[in-house]
Structures
1.
Amino acid sequence: MSKTIDRAELSNIPVRVLIVDDDEAHAQAVAQSLERIKCDCTVATSGAQGAALVEGENYDVVVTDLKMDDVDGMAILQKAKQELPDAEVILLTGHASVQSALAAGQHGAHTYLTKPLDVSELRNAVEKASTRIRLIRRNAELARRLDEKFGFEGVIGSSPQMQKIIETLKNVSPTDSTVLIEGENGTGKELVARALHQNSPRRNKPFVPLNISALPASILESELFGHEAGAFTGAASKRIGKFEYANGGTLFLDEVGEMPMETQIKLLRVLEDRRITRLGSNDEHSINVRLVSATNADLKAMIEKGTFRRDLFFRLNVVRIYLPPLRERRGDIPLLLEHFREELCKRSGREVEGFSKAARKALMAHNWPGNIRELRNCVERMLVVDSDGVLDVDDLPDDIAPVSTADDGPGGSDAHGADNLIGRPLNDVEKYYIERTLDLCEGNREEAAAMLGIGERTLYRKIKEYDIRSGS
């Protein structure tokens, strides 16, 4: 059963508050007053520290002093609006003026409070800001519920395998757990990683992908951890690595099984310490990154061969998601065909009526060694060569052979046949579509039930009720 978050649960999630004030005693007093109304408070005792936390962490409300020696409150406000667009910012000042109040409002401050603070006024301001935050959370949850039936932020499927994966994604996305995605090339591993990021609290921070297999071993560590000028031949200037670039967000390491052993050791150290050291430097830098990895290799077999570290595998494999090849979930093909048709038609400005039954049957029968990537490319090719507005067998690539079909039933091809059902009893319409779906699935009842959006037991009952021989 799907686990969803109701309003009460959303209301009980603490609001994260960052307090920025170079008067440490005042900052701690503000934190204590807000913690009494169940806020999760972090204190920064300088503008520079506050700016770094805004850049690297996630907060719902930022309470900042206006006048500070290094980075002032207006700079914190502007940085928060850039890095945390959903967050509310409350400015505090002991030197109130109409001009500064107007400037704060123009830059998006939630409110503007004067010192000495009235604790009730501060709490009311934070509670109003938190009300808006909870509304955003509820709306995000409603959006997730609307997507529950067939997908999750672009991860599409109605087969039992994909519904189980989607359920896992919904449960794991709000956490910071490392995730290992396994599957053949073309199964959509990066798409799943992006869905994890987009549905996490880190969604407003960077999603940074890095394909390990595309990089020579000699520059991989520089790409991951960065380097200082002169660290090695050709390092003319300092370079920020992917870990630092992804700070606060998600780093996606594709084909992690291709990582050299010496780099595996350093990656394990980073995951344990949450700190990186650029090549050519002795200084460590704290990082706050969620790591998602992907591979088409059998890492357990690599461990036995001594080419992949067992301890690193356990750190990467906190949550495992296996993406089955398309040939093992053919019931998802019709949904994917329609998804890609709509997406590519919108992008190209083309309009097509749909797929003919003969084309659908050929596409369902194909083995799809290139998986979803191959399917998408196939639909794009059919759109490019089509000349009559119906994607038919004459538009198929040469390596996808048409499959002989039985009588198409009333009206011929799927593109027009349903018109002849107008005015017929509903039982005839239901029987027709069940028969056509079973034909498309070559009699596979599990796939047909998934395509029709009904349970297998319901399908069995309908087959018996209508005496449908193709389902036997």
Note: The mean pLDDT is 84.
2.
Amino acid sequence: MAQKPSLPKGTRDFGPQQMLKRNYILDTIKKVFKKYGFLPLETPAMENLSVLTGKYGDEGDQLLFRILNSGDFLSKASPEDVKAGSKKLSTKIAEKGLKYDLTVPFARYVVANQHEIAFPFKRYQIQPVWRADRPQKGRYREFYQCDADVIGTRSLLCEAELMLMVHEIFKELKFSDFKVAISSRKVLEGIAEVLGIADKFSQFVVILDKLDKIGEERVIDELSSIGVEENSLNSLKNLLAISGNNASKVEQLRVEFMNSSIGLNGLDDIENTLKYCAQLGLADHKLDFDLTLARGLSYYTGVVYEVKPTSISMGTITAGGRYDDLTGMFGMSGMSGVGISFGIDRIYDTLNELNLFPKDNLDTTQVLIVNFDEESEAHALPILSELRSHGIFSELYPDSAKLKKQMTYADRKGIPYVLMIGSKEIEEGKYTLKNMTTGSQESLSIHELVNFLN
């Protein structure tokens, strides 16, 4: 009995139509990345586990896909290692793992190549990553990340340019229903100081990051459960009630942060980022200063941001922030950077749900030449070459099959035009071009055909 073909859970095939749409998104993003001076980079699918472990926290370490050593992978393991459990055993049987994200391999690359790199270093990277997570809707074990980072400068001009890139990319994709929440980890540290809970900062950020998911009341309850006193909780409620435009919210917080230098520094960062955006011409922006924005990753140290659709229910589609010492984990301290990541899968789902993909067939065959018989095929081959030489995506049906079969092929592939070369057309030197959408036909010479399809 033949084996049923199947995929590992949490992975997907992308058929031609899906790939055309994904490439439309990726090509749009790449074009903007390159316009802003970012250079391409790729790192291997696998990294040494010594590079990956200890960078994502205990939970992240558990989600790493480990690769068994080649050959007799048990050769370095003893019965005692087996008895000691999986953590002890894994170090003996696996030295490599699939990469969990693009950021840690990027930091490793920067440190390893620091003498060849021109700093500030602007790179973009679009590659799959792997996480041994529980597969569910919107969560996969293999998925693409699309990152752009600048490392080697503390200038807030970089943050502003990333914000411009967000607006330009989504404008190119004809998507306008989004909001960019922007804040700073320093603002959160300022809030923690004002509340008198600086010693609980890490726990505070983790809980506050749940605000959108569980609501203010449950956030207050969770903070109370870790020992935050009632007067501090009341102060937090007052801070959460701050509203108005960006300038007004900054002004109100400056009063609250009178005794918090780090909080005031965070507000300066927000103001200067917004000022740079204005100077760069981003007038009608969608930036909203959200003082509760936490971003879960602990390596962020400055400005953070995330983008969400406003007209449909969808999670974060783009996010990032400033990190001051990511390369420090590999022995190169003080190398500040800032980055952004576009979530290709969620952007795809968003454009699909809002019906924003172009109606024409993206990068697919423009014209199919019908193959009637040997004479037709022989006459069609030079025409096929001529069309392709002018950059027209074209193909000749490989067999002299029935016309209905060839038309069905064109229809299923979404080919907009079919070119028919019969004996009458060969004699006249004009060929019948049929529009597959309207059914209309016209007779064109090769020169006219090339002009029409270009």
Note: The first helix runs from residue 16 to 35.
3.
Amino acid sequence: MYSKEHGFYEYDGHTWVHRPDEIIDHYIAEALEHFIDGPFIESIEKALKTKCAKEFKRNEKYYTREFKRIETQCARESERIETYLILFEKE
């Protein structure tokens, strides 16, 4: 995962761990099956950052929207419960 504000993060199975660009460069080089330095790695890293930033932003919008939907649904359910309690107390 990549965020413009915080950089790269990698999920280790339990938590998200911050990874410096040098580690990402190493992963790219390993994926290419040999260690290449310079502009080739940098161009792949730049493309990866762009793609990950777009995906992060899209996911952030989705989860924010979902959170608001769930929050609204919970508020409605809470109001409904309060109404039932008021009606129940009157009987």
Note: DSSP finds two helices and three strands in the chain.
4.
Amino acid sequence: MNTKPPFQWSSAGRSHVGMVRAINEDACVALPELGLWAVADGMGGHEAGDVASRLIVETLQQTPPPTDWPSFLNSVRERLSEVNRQLREESAQRYQHRTIGSTVVVLAAYEGQCACLWVGDSRIYRLREGHLQQLTRDHSHVQELVDQGLIAPEEAHRHPLSNVITRAVGSADELCIDEVDHPLRVGDMFLLCSDGLNKTVSDEEIARLLAHSGHNCQEAVKAFIHLALMRDASDNVTTVVVNIDEGEEQDCELGATDEEIGSETQTNPIPPDWYLQ
């Protein structure tokens, strides 16, 4: 009997401190053997943002292998809620109730479907047949202004309150997670990123670089980091790229220190004509 899964996925992830910050409060994880990827962005300006993002990643790594779709998603939700509880306790016990928080975006895939789960303004994009779609909706003050028609979407990243988020893991006793489900297709590419990327690289550039990568996740991640650093990224920059394909083996390229990223990006991975398209 043929037990080959309907899809396989390859993935790569990188996090860089950027050109200004002294501490990297971002974290990412890629677990293709589980069909689970995540990016977390510790809340800048608050206590221990790097602790919060790292705790999210470490807790998600404990997710058991999926046996069915509902239990898989429940496991992810439960782990995020557990992190929220731990951060609230840590805040009360060690930080005089100051917020210890982090955004998170999670991509979970099982058989022919995927789910995006998120809290905060880190994002998940999907490139399908050349069309880029943002699958998450920011939990942020500027997004609320856009929804009310008070500012245009293209003004959002320049707004003086663009860093103010309205939800985070660890910011309230009850964690509210948004979730959307989507069917998978061969050729889909997903980008998970912290706002340090999407505030530096436009949606049009994201689409172009994903398309130019030739479904090579490692090259796409390197190109995103390289472009953000070329533009003197003032925030931490983290990206995870996932490619959906048919086949039998899964592959993961994950984890590089900032020093490794620095050496990798000495050679420009961006195609020389990409910005002329």
Note: Residues 249-266 have pLDDT under 50 and may be disordered.
